[in-house]
Amino acid sequence: MQRFLALAALVPATLAQTYYGCYTEVPARALTGHSVIDYTGMTIADCESNCTTLGFTIWGLEYSGECYCGDSLAQGSFPAFSTDCNMACAGDPTAICGGPNRLSLYGSSTTPPTVTPNPHPAVTTTQYEGCWTEATGPRALSGASAYSGSAMTLTDCGNYCLNSGFTWFGTEYSSECYCGNALDVTSTLVADTDCAMACSGAPGEVCGGPNRLSVYQWV
Fold first, then answer.
1. Which end of the chain is less enclosed by CB atoms within 10 A, N or C?
2. Strand spans (E) along the chain
3. What's the pLDDT band for 26 if we cut at 50, 70, 90?
4. Any idea where the domains of the chain sit in the sequence?
5. Cβ(212)–Cβ(133) below 8 Å
6. Are 199 and 169 within 8 A, CB to CB?
7. Pairing mode, if any, of strands 66-70 and 58-62?
C-alpha cells in the first residue's frame, strides 16, 4: 500500500516543454518516428533530448524506461485517465514515465496533438440501461477496460469507451470502467439498489457495486 501511494503522488516533471497528459497506446505504436529503451536510466529530459535532436515535435514515455518520438499520434491514441500513468521513471524516481500501455505525452507546442479515436457510430448522448450483474464467463462488457482509483466518473468512462470504438459502457466497484457493443448473454438485469457505490472521482454519481455494473449506452 505504501508503494502504491508513493507512485500515485508523483507528478510530471516541469521542463521546457508542454505536458499533454496520459495517452493510450494502440496495437501499432502511437508514436512511430523513433524509440529508445532504457530500463535503468530513462528520464523525461533524456527522452526530450533524444526526440528533439532528431527533429521530432512530440515524445512520450511508457512503462518507466521506454521513450517514443513522432510528429503526430496514430489513430486510436487519445487521452486516458491521468492515474493510468503512474510508473516512476527508471532514472528519476520523483517523476512519472507513463504506465502499462500508457504514454506520458509531451511536445514542443502549447497545443495538444490532434487525436483520431477509433471509429464509432455517430452518437450524441447516453442513456441509462440499468444495473447488471457481471457475466458468468467473460466480462459482461468484454471490450476495452480502464481503472482509476481516484478519478473515475461516468463521463470519463463513457468518453473512454466511445473513443475506444464502443457504444456501451459500464462502471463497477467505484473505479472500474468496461466497454463493449453488447452485454454478454449471461449478464442479468437486477435492482438499481445493487449498484450503490459512489464513483471514485465523483461522489455524487453511482459507479456500480461488487460484481455489479451501472450500464449506459451511447445513442
1. N
2. 18-24, 34-37, 58-62, 66-70, 88-89, 92-96, 102-107, 126-133, 145-147, 168-172, 176-180, 189-190, 198-199, 202-206, 212-218
3. confident
4. 10-107, 126-218
5. yes
6. no
7. antiparallel
What is residue 15's predicted lDDT score, i.e. its pLDDT? Answer: 56
Question: pLDDT, tens digit, for every residue of 97-110?
Answer: 999 999 999 999 99
Count of CB atoms situated within 10 Å of the CB of 184: 18
Q: What are phi and psi of 161, to 5 degrees?
A: -70, -40
pLDDT at 146: 92
Instruction: Count H helices and E strands in the chain, helices first.
Output: 3, 15
Integer Cα distance of 203 and 161 in angstroms: 21
Give the Cα separation of 59 and 202 in Å (integer): 31
Query: Is pLDDT above 70 for 182?
Result: yes
pLDDT for 88 equals 98
Looking at residue 187, the DSSP 8-state letter turns out to be -
The radius of gyration of the chain's CA atoms, rounded to the nearest angstrom, is 18
The rounded distance, in Å, linking the Cα atoms of 53 and 36 is 13
Segment holding 50, helix H or strand E: helix 44-53
Q: In 3-state terms, what secondary structure has residue 2?
A: helix
Phi, psi of 92 (to 5 degrees): -155, 90
Alpha carbons within 13 A on the beta-carbon side of 36: 23
Total length of the chain: 219
Among 145, 218, 217, 133, smallest CA distance to 179 is for 145
